[in-house]
């Protein structure tokens, strides 16, 4: 996994609530057997009309906005467990998703792919969206080590929570497989214990 | 202080606790299917890590399979490749696969309970969010991403932060025509699609105690639609009766030992939950959804509420509905009875009971998709197939089908579908399709009338 330390980037606002994983990547694109290329179909049915032409009203087709930060509405990533959603966001180029609330499975999937979900207050989210809408060239600063997100040049900053273990993983580019495999002896001992103490 | 059902099962699976960090949770059963496993197998191969406990993994093909002519090669090239990949991966790693056409094949959350793979007190995971279904047995069961599928392959464990606990109690007696699907749609409409995020939810009270295992599975299945990773119901005589004698159920002395343990699992009377909700069964009516998330539900004869909110308005625009409108009398051309929520024998019995002696409306295409080969067989054995065929319904072969429309079973753009599945997201049943979630009874009545009817009046 790629390391994540610090990020300065412009941002793309998507102020819609309950963005579900079927919108992030529709099921018909889940037939692939590898992890690459999902970015082309990110938000497919919002981004393109049925005839394949671009929907000019959708934010990803608005060339005013760009960057590695996606700012989304409440309850982002609800629905299915498909990790393809995290792969699509990452493949498209997003490294940070900001929202006031994330669905559980999506949050875990994002973290397992080096995409940082940052949960902020409703107030901060609203201000952030207004600021970026107003001035698309606004630069967002994300500091994982010190756990804050800020708007450069403005007095706008909020700290965010992250599990200490997950933070270490992101900063060092580790994943859970390395850790779990290193605990094999403990796991085998647990299995032995199960044999003698059946549940 | 006493322990909850969830605490008891969780604590029995903790291998190790990391200071200020997650816990290592042991996984008893890992269910896999063709869509969310190939990248995990690849990951392990690349890192040269063997599958740690292949005998604790069970595979089925369900998401991306055709529901017609399953004996023929799968036409769609990408789907065929994905299915072949699953077969290859299972063969290479000594994993039991119930492939397309096998007498035990079916939707993962239908076939595993049916074979007795799902048992009380277990921990079960699958790369599918509706794994919460298995919680109906008093099991900790939840959906995981593909990276986690790879973790379980590598270690039979997951690194997790213990979720908080919540309980939803529903006491009283359900009205005529109110099914388990209505109960869960009602609950989600009241508490919202993220009330359960960060929690594991126990369903308690008379309504669930009196429910069949099929009904309990319908309820637990949709726990994820209110954000909860999993739902659970305390195992009782109904549970034991269901599990007993199934293919992989324990037998003899082992059964007795397990039974003793299972009986110790229900929540202690002095246990505390982090959050509690309580509802009265008499307030629950047959339900239907009008929007683009499962929380946007109303009683079938109700009106679409007034709500000033951009996301709410976006949903109504997509559905082509107006605030204040009633759904009754809306013309419906598609009806789908199937999915891991409602494709068990009981669901088809309810539908057949209503349909018997009637015929579907001319304008309706009605698809019935059993959850498994075993359910398909039961439909035939019980004579339900004849009832459905005579009524003009189309009985297909098992699979996830039009619930997520990965295969050819797609609802055309702009069309409404009254569906017994679990998600009414934009385009879920096909690009531009509009889904209205309901019970198998409401779905059957819609198919017969060609429009949404007030089932409560119909039954009286």
Description:
The complex is a heterodimer of chains A (199) and B (460). By secondary structure, chain A is of the alpha/beta class. In chain A, 34% of the residues lie in helices and 16% in strands. Chain A has a four-stranded antiparallel sheet, with no helix packed on it. In chain A, strands 2-3-4-5 form a four-stranded parallel sheet. The mean pLDDT of chain A is 95. Chain B folds into two domains: 5-275, Aconitase, domain 3, CATH 3.30.499; 291-459, Aconitase, domain 3, CATH 3.30.499.10. By secondary structure, chain B is of the alpha/beta class. Chain B is globular. In chain B, helix 2 packs across helix 5 (146-155). Chain B is built from 16 helices and 19 strands. The mean pLDDT of chain B is 97. In chain B, the strands form five sheets. Chain B has a five-stranded parallel sheet with strand order 5-4-3-6-7. A five-stranded parallel sheet of chain B has the order 17-16-15-18-19, with helices on one face. The interface between A and B is large, with 55 and 73 residues.
Kindly list the characteristics that best describe this protein:
heterodimer, A: 199 residues, 4-stranded parallel sheet, 8 strands, globular, B: 460 residues, alpha/beta, Aconitase, domain 3, 5-stranded parallel sheet
Précis, in short:
The complex is a heterodimer of chains A (199) and B (460). Chain A has 199 residues and is of the alpha/beta class.
**What is the residue-averaged pLDDT of chain A?**
95
Low-pLDDT stretches of chain B: none
Spatial strand arrangement across the major sheet of chain A: 1-6-7-8
Low-pLDDT residue spans of chain A: none
- The portion of residues assigned to helices of chain A is 25-40%
Number of helices of chain A: 8
Percent range for β-strand residues of chain B: 15-25%
Query: Into which percent range does the helicity of residues of chain B fall?
Result: 25-40%
What is the CATH first-level class name of the largest domain in chain B? Alpha Beta
> Judging by the overall fold, what is the CATH architecture of the largest domain in chain B?
2-Layer Sandwich
For the sheet with most strands of chain B, the description reads:
5 strands, parallel
Mean pLDDT of chain B: 97
| Secondary structural class of chain B | alpha/beta
**Total number of beta strands of chain B:** 19
Task: Please identify the oligomeric state.
Answer: heterodimer
- Computed Rg of chain A: 19 Å
